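In practice, a research group might receive sequence data for several interacting partners and want a quick structural hypothesis before committing to experiments. The following worked case mirrors that situation: the sequences arrive first, and a predicted assembly follows.
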Amino acid sequence: MIEVKGLYKSFGDQEVLRGVDLLVPKGQITVILGRSGAGKSVLLKHMIGLIRPDRGQILVMGKDITKMREKELTQLRKRFGMLFQEGALFDSLTVAENVAFPLREHTDLSEKEIREIVKEKLSQVGLAGDMEKMPAELSGGMRRRAALARALALDPDIVLFDEPTTGLDPVVAATIEDLIIETQRRLGKTFVVITHDLKTALRIGQKLALLDRGQIALQGKPEDVLRSGHPLLEAFLRRERSPVVKEVMG
Amino acid sequence: MTGFVASVGAWTIRQVKDMGGMVLLALQALRWLLPPRFDLLFEQMERIGVRSTPVIFMTGAFTGMVFALETCYALRKFGAETMVGVTVALGMTRELGPVFTSIMITARAGSAMAAELGTMRITEQIDALAAMAINPVKYLVVPRLLATTFIVPLLTVISDFIGIVGGYFVGVILLKINAGAFVANIEKYTGLDDIYCGLIKAGVFGFLLALICCYKGYTVRGGAEGVGRATTESVVMSAVAILMADYILTSLLF
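A structural hypothesis for the assembly, expressed as tokens:
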């Protein structure tokens, strides 16, 4: 579905991505795990063309997006949904208007139809009762739910998640993880999640990729990656010997 | 000494980079100008224009009033008080109307533009727009640029008129200048050209202030502090740019 080949990106003197090779399979949840500041967000933003690489290719559904003009890229982006770290909801619009926004911009649906879709998308994330609230009135977890509803508004083929559980307490984080798993099962679409939280990665990932020093050190099934004994993974594991890890390890 | 030279050099590089960035932003805005989004344009015109009318009313009135007071003080020495009206009218239409209006709009609406776009940048709302296949320059910058370029001349008309009325109030009613001579001299010596050139200047000032404020907001870095810095810089830079452009345009147009 998405294939990243030899991707390089520097900001000034700082080399963030140094030859990333990654394969994101269709219809699965791929998790990219890495330390804070490892360039995960930069990699994710490359996949939707928000950042242009210095070198390398990104094939989305077979087409190289690094060579696309802005207009082509805009067309392609309609097939993407993206959930930003803090939600990035438009704070001048209500929750319902936020979800309606991509529909109003890109479809010819009537106001009545839009209202129906908004209602449906928001009830799927458990926010049916908060439609008229402003983003500032929502908690961190609710903001991300609303952002997920907005990301799914146009029924995208690929959904990108930038640190969906960061800054949330473990209970809320678990509900967001459940929501991601449940949504992916229901829709069967391709999800790409970046996180620095091993627990989140193991809970939701069907494929796990390890981003270390600007490269994908390992990628594969979570259990295979876990058994590899990669030093970065060992460091993560030492930090949290949790029941989830044992469960996956068997 | 080297420290001083280095800081002057760094400052110069920063300014040149900023200017280059602004030209690029203006070119991008030009590219995304059509088809126009009237809904967004009218929304911005309402925010920038309609809501600024009271403050333009106040500044226009008091500028005209104090200008009448000062010119009357000077012209009385030559017994030429009847020229107060035309001095106020020329001063307002050619100079004070456009300049004060654009500086007030910078303070009221320009700073808000920089702060709003800056906050949208640091909270990734601008990225979110792009991710939703909406060009942020088309959606955010173009309507603000167009609205300000149209609105500042319109507000200048109000300011010019109210300023002259203020001048009339001070000159004729408070300082007892002959009303007939006051108005007749305005008619005789103030041409439409004076008004038009003032309005052209106002349009240019509007474009400049919107471009600077949008650019500063759009390119914010470094969290809440960055937004604060960008807002301050946008106001200072716009005010300086308006005064510099004023001199250049006046020497070209008049």
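Before designing any experiment, note the following. Chain B is about 85% helix and 0% strand. The CA atoms of residues 245 and 251 of chain B lie 10 Å apart.
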